[in-house]
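Students often ask why we bother encoding 3D structure as a string. The short answer is that it lets us treat folding as translation between two languages. Here is a chain of 203 residues written in the first language.
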Amino acid sequence: MIAKLTGILDVLNDTSLVLDVNGVGYLVSCSSRTLGSLGAKGDRVVLFIETVMRAESLQLYGFGTSEEQSCFRLLITVQGVGMRMALSLLSAFSPSEIYHAISAQDKTLLTRADGVGPKLASRIVTELKDKVPTGLGIPSNVYTHPSSLAPNLEEAISALVNLGYRRLEAVTAVSKAQQHLGEDAPLNDLIRQGLSLLARSGT
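And here it is in the second language, the structure alphabet:
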């Protein structure tokens, strides 16, 4: 089992690369984000590797960070999400963005990845909503289904969504507002603070 490879970038394609490790060329499939971060041909590259054994072949999937690899492993546990689909999601979003979208139940955002339709996005959100890592900037009380949120939080989120913000953006802003104002913050204060945070972030 290959867990990590260190070598020289020999060939760089749209969806894969060839890594020269002591004269042996390894074909590794990667997300476009990883491929874009590796540098130029001849550069030294370190990749975390997911090895997939098939009946007639051995396939390698490479990741620039352990976080990306962990997200890949989580995504492929969902029915209908294969290796290529997981790489498509990781090409469109960072692991943190994927986790935030799942936590915020933002199915629409996930459909921006190539090949991810509404049904699959819904399945990803449903199956992984209780499995995403915590500590990513959203308090633990919003790592739940929207129906489980405190009424004032959900109302504040809905208000921001109605103003044209994506649910993911609204959840993040309202959650940070609550952290600053306290759990018993009035609805209007949450909305006002949420809008202020969104304006500062340039969203």
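Translate back mentally: The chain has nine helices and five strands. Keep this in mind for the problem set.
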